[in-house]
Amino acid sequence: MANDVGTNWAGNLAYGASTLHEPTSVDEVRRIVAGVSSIRALGSRHSFNSIADGTAELLSTAALTGPVTVDRDRSTVTVGAGIRYGELAQELEREGIALANLASLPHISVGGAVATGTHGSGKRNRSLAAAVVGLELVTGSGDLVRFTTSDPDFEGAVINLGVLGIVTRLELKVEPAFEVEQTVFERLPLENLLQNFDGVTGAAYSVSVFTTWRDPDVADSVWVKRRPDQDAPLEETLFGAVAAKDERHPLPGLPAIGCTPQLGVAGPWYNRLPHFKLDFTPSNGVELQSEYLVPREHAVDAIRAVRELSPEIVPLLQVNEIRTVAADDLWLSSSYATDAIGLHFTWVQDQPAVEALLPTLEAALEPFLARPHWGKVFTPGAHDFDRLYPRLEDFRLLTKRLDPEGIFANPFTASLMAR
Ligand SMILES: Cc1cc2nc3c(=O)[nH]c(=O)nc-3n(C[C@H](O)[C@H](O)[C@H](O)COP(=O)(O)OP(=O)(O)OC[C@H]3O[C@@H](n4cnc5c(N)ncnc54)[C@H](O)[C@@H]3O)c2cc1C
């Protein structure tokens, strides 16, 4: 136990909790939770907003990583919620199995990523939470509750924003290990992207478009992650963009040393699907992030809307990533019941300026039913979550049932729970 709880990864938020618990077993979690009136789980601290803040105490899941148990008959792996994807991948490698997808970085905890609906990219790849087929959580009374896919509330319990309890273990779907080749194509004429959105984003298993909008007619790069066992071979050009001859970083000008291997060299899934390597600082490190998930049918119009705002966006932007996420059934998923595109913004770390710009950006994306990423910076109160999430009322009922005393509530979730 310690008093200085510290900050989130980005350093833009100092947690207000007075106590940080660091349990090493589920029994310890149960004892801690049963003895407090306000607590939340803290994963690897990679969220940019106050979603993990605002309770009197915090419970770090960092030591709740194991055991990692593979069930070959069910094609699943069960893990402790605190394990980071990069560490899990090393365990899976030994077993010759893989997860279907990963986020841009392997540094995040499985429990934290799932709780916020974290996703990677890929036309047919769903959010990371969609791999969950079972979970176990400690409720406010200290009881251990298990959810499986046959529970009627299962789809509500997976992406839970930390408000249902402390998730201690998760069962994830796995598949045989596979290889991926990563190729970066540069200078994609924007009109080619807009005219061929399905072609570009469907060019391979996972595709991300990066642009700084400094030239509104050209997207800086397209990161194509190809599965040789599924995808057609790539050519030297992609809708007018040209394959890079050297390795790149998604943020122009930064060294590629911290990025996963490129140049079309085949390698294991976990060392290609994320953009960043586990043993390096991901992205820039000095930044803020926002992301809005828009139904795929609005992709082109939403990108045009962002482009319209490029004069205001460019001074605060490090890079804009455009990616795709397939629909799932999880109630609080930003791709709930719709294939979606993610419009992700890595901003400079100037919170007042970013917060001043966001209402304009959000107003421009609102007609497209944009859902803000739960773990990134967005304008509180600016989104009609009941409209965006048709199962939100069911989630409120589930929360009242599992956490009647509001032990896991914080101001972030309280505003969502209020009608
Ligand atoms: C450099 C960088 C790159 C990123 N890239 C992506 C990306 O590619 N795609 C994407 O979608 N997001 C991305 N994110 C956002 C990130 O994935 C989410 O913020 C995610 O929640 C981080 O997980 P965490 O373990 O750090 O969670 P934390 O920030 O520690 O916690 C987030 C929330 O989850 C809850 N929580 C954590 N663990 C548990 C648990 N065991 N039980 C119950 N609740 C829990 C917390 O209470 C809190 O509400 C990125 C973030 C950074 C910093």
From TrEMBL:
The FAD-binding PCMH-type domain, residue ranges: 13-177
KW Calcium (keyword) present: no
Protein's UniProt keywords contain Oxidoreductase: yes
Domain of life: Bacteria
Keywords for this protein: Oxidoreductase
InterPro entries registered for this protein in UniProt: ALO_C, FAD-bd_PCMH, FAD-bd_PCMH-like_sf, FAD-bd_PCMH_sub1, FAD-bd_PCMH_sub2, FAD_lactone_oxidase-like, Oxid_FAD_bind_N, Vanillyl_alc_oxidase_C-sub2
PANTHER family documented for this protein: D-ARABINONO-1,4-LACTONE OXIDASE (PTHR43762:SF1), L-GULONOLACTONE OXIDASE (PTHR43762)
Protein name as annotated: Alditol oxidase
Native source species: Arthrobacter parietis
Gene name tied to this protein: aldO
